Amino acid sequence: MIGVPCAFDVHAGRARAVRLDTMPSDRTVLPPADSQCWARILTGELDPDIKTLATRLIITRLRIEVTNNSTALPRSVDDLRRFFAENKFAHRDLATIIGA
Amino acid sequence: MKNAFLSVEETAALIASRAVLFISGPEPLLRQLPRGNWIGGTTAYFMTPEGGVSRDDRLFCTTFDDAVEARTAMLPSSDFSGLTRHRFVYGFTCIVVPAFSPTLQRYAIHGPGLSGLYNQPVFGWVAGVHLDRVGQDVPMVFDGATGTASADGLAALWVALPETAEVDLDIVNLFTAGDGESIIFPEGGFDVTDCLIDGVPANLARHIAERGVDTTLPLVADYAGAMINVSFQTVDAENGRVRFYAPVVPGTTYRLARPVADYGRAYADAAMQGSATDMLSCNCILNYRYAALEGRSTGGFVGPVTFGEFAYILLNQTLSRLSVHHALAA
Fold first, then answer.
1. CB-CB: which of A12, A22, A87 is closest to B327?
2. Which residues of B touch A18 (CB under 8 A)?
3. DSSP letters of B209-270?
4. For residues B227 and B215, what is the distance between their CA atoms, to the nearest angstrom?
5. Which of B16, B48, B256, B330 sits 20 to 30 Å CA-CA off B143?
């Protein structure tokens, strides 16, 4: 019998405290929102060698938003800064952007 | 993470042992499985260590033996927000969606904009059917925790990992953009008519027919260094319409891919960059078909052959791979 997929339901398995992010701590400093590096990366003026798939995809998504609507730039800068603030795994890419 | 190509009985025993599993195979076999910590989807094709194969008596099972916690759900197409909302603080997500379904279309278009999508790996694939049965059999996905099967839902498995684990999600795309014309679409979506070819307005379907373009090759766009394909499904020159297996994105520059000389060699080269045997991967049915992968190995990459792949977003003609490493392992 085919189930009805509309009802959202989550089924918890075994529960234990967990931790995944084992990226080493680093001292990469997040540039402020008014740093020119953000606008340069999101307009494509800056195109450094990004290594992480997640970073590549979010930068491209935000570039498309900015290309289609230039007023979206401040919001896109916030989104990209938040991505780097929340994800240490992407700090290698952040360092590349800062150093570009 | 362990991969195995198992009978129904062997798979049922794994489920009974409380293993956390991502399973692919024929619908009649998936329907025989007991409830447990698993999700699954239909496929008739697999990449095994011995090469590509079509089997109706085996299930491809990936056991996430690193998992310390797991949960599953069948998400409706009306709301994908649970995909990120219900993940663990540290871990990854597996998803499987039926081919040709409204859920797939909605995720392909709206999924890339989910808040926080790129903060944690999202790996998965599009469930399919035997190529001889397209239009007769229906691709299905399963939530093993409830025994729910769906032709139009997104089955999700959230996995939590221990402190020592790191997840690596990436793609292997043998295609790169060729040297031909640039193609830009003013409107996005799976179905297109008009575009700009080298800046000149044109109808893509008629352009393809007039030039005899090889549509076994995808269009490729450069996503900040990641080559992302959209593959041709149908070209209707008479009505001026092209349908793709993934949506094109307006304003993005696409080019027809450069042909791949030797798929098997190219996968072997890609696998040399790391051990493919301890990864879960999925490869596209179009690669399986166009590159004649039946009986041929793909550099050690194993997993289901699928009607589309996910590495956060929907991909075409691409191998998506997931691996878990332990930083403190000897």
1. A22
2. 68-69, 88-91, 160-163
3. HHHT--TTSPEEEEETTEEEEE-EEEEETTTTEEEEEEEE-TT-EEEEBPPPS-HHHHHHHH
4. 17
5. B48
Q: Do B89 and A86 touch (CB under 8 A)?
A: no
Chain B residue numbers touching A54 (CB-CB < 8 A): 118-119, 121, 169, 312
Give yes or no for A25 touching B (CB within 8 A).
no
Q: Give me the residue spans of the domains in chain B.
A: 2-172+264-326, 183-256
* pLDDT tens digits along A28-80: 789 999 999 999 999 999 999 999 999 999 999 999 999 988 899 999 999 99
Q: Is A70 on the interface with B (CB under 8 A)?
A: no
Residue B100, by phi and psi: left (phi above 0), alpha (psi -120 to 50) or beta?
left
Chain A residues touching residue B252 (CB < 8 angstroms): 64
- Using CA coordinates, name the residue in chain B closest to A15: B69
- Token readout for B214 is 């090889």
Chain B contact for A20, CB < 8 A? yes
List, for residues B183-234, the tens digit of each pLDDT value.
999 999 999 999 999 999 999 999 999 999 999 999 999 999 999 999 999 9
Nearest CB to A22; choose among B75, B88, B166: B166
The complex's ipTM works out to 0.94
DSSP class of residue B133 equals G
Chain B, nearest residue to A69 by Cα: B251
Per-residue pLDDT for B283 more than 60?
yes
pLDDT in tens, B240-261: 999 999 999 999 999 999 998 8
Amino acid code (one letter) for B249: V
Question: Per DSSP, which regions of A1-100 are E strands?
Answer: 11-12
Say what the pTM is.
0.91
pLDDT score of A26 more than 90: no
